[in-house]
Design a protein that fits this description.
This protein is an alpha/beta fold. It contains 15 helices and 16 strands. The N terminus is likely disordered.
Length: about 475
């Protein structure tokens, strides 16, 4: 969900973590591995109890987490922490708790003709020790979400929190320490070199949320141990406005998706594809919608800041590059405020953008919104398909045939029709990327499966029907079987 190297992950580093930090990771990892070997399978009631314990701990620390995230961002809207992190995390725990028993139930499968009589079953076993690497943009939700499904599947878990949200990381570490034994769930902190060492451990499964570039390093490190990975990355998620869709309908919902967390969201609409004749009207509609949501921004505690100075400068670098290369910039700054002495920024809408501009090459992860005109829906689809597959795709329109046409002819990790962001909060939908936007899923039943060994088991009775196909070959029974199968 992050686009730059400022993500906790398996980035290559010239330095090694301090011996104490590395030793601590090793010590906890080995303790969890021993604990799993001692108790390789937890019954459903025990898993549900663990999830309920996590839920109670989060509820008890709600106000403290809001304060910690606000401090880490130098201004994060309380409502956004609750709506985008806390409530989805709690709802995810409730959802999983109610379904663990059903998910764990062995699944009967069909038996082929030559294997009868016999029975086939799928068993769902815990994998063992799971590693989770958390980014800074949604540090609560992106820690609790994977943890929920790892616990539902009966695993031991270690979590590496981002160094760029230190207050939240420390609070989360303390909460987990009070809630779980260290050999069951543990949290570690540290700089990027600690994350690199963390990603190189021989996990039974490793989940990383962060930048595509860092995801490549994580995957390389995991390959040394053939560690299975789930990579939740990012990319440039498009929003398509249909050829007959009222631009105001789209503008309001795109504005919400872009402004939430100041655009620092992996599935935020990265750019808009708009019918050429209505592109200016769409920008005008944004100028109407944004002030209704945020009449002022700079001193508004409900408007989130860019997380740190490095990110602020990166985003403004993209803006300046676009200006120098000829982009038309519309600043949507409802109160006309001066943002030079703050980490907050208004929304900038960019038109006349080109592929040479950095803003069209990199995931933006901030309050810049390019608007690209198109003449036909096929042209819009061709543009999307000519670029790496995104984490999300948004389409605004009410024509069912065109909706199906867009969904059939594009690829993305997830898709949402006539809104933004909300698909990630649907616990029964799998969430993840495709291609450069990631691999694997960790919501819903698919999340439980990701952290489980899906083990096929075949049972044979005492009567050995397989003797029918044993050598010597060429017997009458073999000829009969060949006729049965080649028909």
């Amino acid at each position: 969900m992050r686009n730059d190297t400022e993500t906790s992950g398996g980035a290559e580093s010239s330095s090694r973590p301090e011996g104490g930090e590395l030793a601590e990771i090793d010590r906890i990892f080995e303790a969890q591995r021993r604990a799993f070997q001692k108790t390789p399978f937890m019954p459903a009631d025990q898993r549900i109890s663990h999830l309920q314990r996590l839920k109670s701990a989060l509820v008890d620390q709600q106000e403290a987490f809001v304060t910690a995230v606000y401090a880490d961002f130098n201004g994060r809207a309380e409502d956004e922490t609750l709506l985008a992190e806390f409530f989805p995390a709690l709802e995810g725990i409730r959802y999983a708790s109610r379904r663990v028993k059903r998910w764990m139930r062995p699944n009967r499968r069909a038996v082929n003709l030559t294997s009868m009589p016999g029975r086939a079953k799928v068993l769902y076993q815990p994998l063992g020790v799971v590693g989770i690497i958390v980014p800074w943009n949604y540090p609560i939700y992106l820690a609790v979400g994977p943890l929920t499904y790892a616990l539902a599947a009966g695993n031991r878990v270690m979590i590496k929190m981002s160094e760029f949200t230190p207050n939240t990381a420390t609070l989360f570490q303390e909460m987990i320490r009070r809630t779980f034994k260290e050999d069951h769930v543990a949290v570690v902190t540290g700089e990027a070199d600690v994350a690199a060492a963390f990603s190189a451990k021989p996990w039974d499964h490793l989940l990383f949320t962060g930048a595509t570039a860092i995801g490549k390093h994580v995957m390389r490190a995991a390959a040394d141990h053939l560690t299975p990975v789930t990579l939740e990355l990012g990319g440039k998620s498009p929003a398509i406005i249909g050829t007959t869709t009222p631009s105001m309908d789209a503008a309001e919902r795109i504005a919400f998706g872009k402004l939430l967390n100041a655009g620092q969201t992996c599935i935020a609409p990265d750019y808009v594809l708009c019918p050429r004749q209505r592109a200016d009207a769409f920008v005008s509609d944004l100028k109407t919608c944004v002030p209704k949501m945020f009449p002022d921004m700079k001193a508004n505690p409900r408007f989130t800041a860019i997380v740190n100075d490095r990110q602020y400068k990166r985003i403004h670098g993209l803006l300046e590059d676009a200006k120098q290369k000829g982009a038309q910039i519309t600043e949507i700054n409802p109160a006309g405020e001066d943002f030079t002495d703050t980490q907050k920024m208004p929304l900038y809408v960019l038109q006349r953008v080109t592929e040479e501009m950095s803003v069209m090459k990199e995931e933006i992860f901030g309050l810049l919104l390019p608007v690209l005109p198109y003449d036909t829906i096929d042209e819009a689809i061709a543009y999307i398909n000519a670029h790496p597959r995104p984490l999300a795709l948004y389409y605004f329109g009410y024509d069912r045939r065109q909706i199906e046409y867009v969904l059939t002819n594009t690829h993305s990790g997830g898709a949402l029709i006539n809104d933004t962001l909300m698909h990630v909060a649907q616990d029964d939908l799998p969430f993840g990327g495709v291609g450069s936007s990631g691999m694997g899923r960790y919501h819903g039943r698919e999340g439980f499966n990701s952290f489980s060994n899906i083990r096929g088991v075949f049972y044979k009775p005492r009567f050995n029907s397989s003797r029918l196909i044993y050598p010597p070959y060429g017997r009458r029974v073999h000829r009969l079987l060949y006729r049965l199968f080649i028909r």
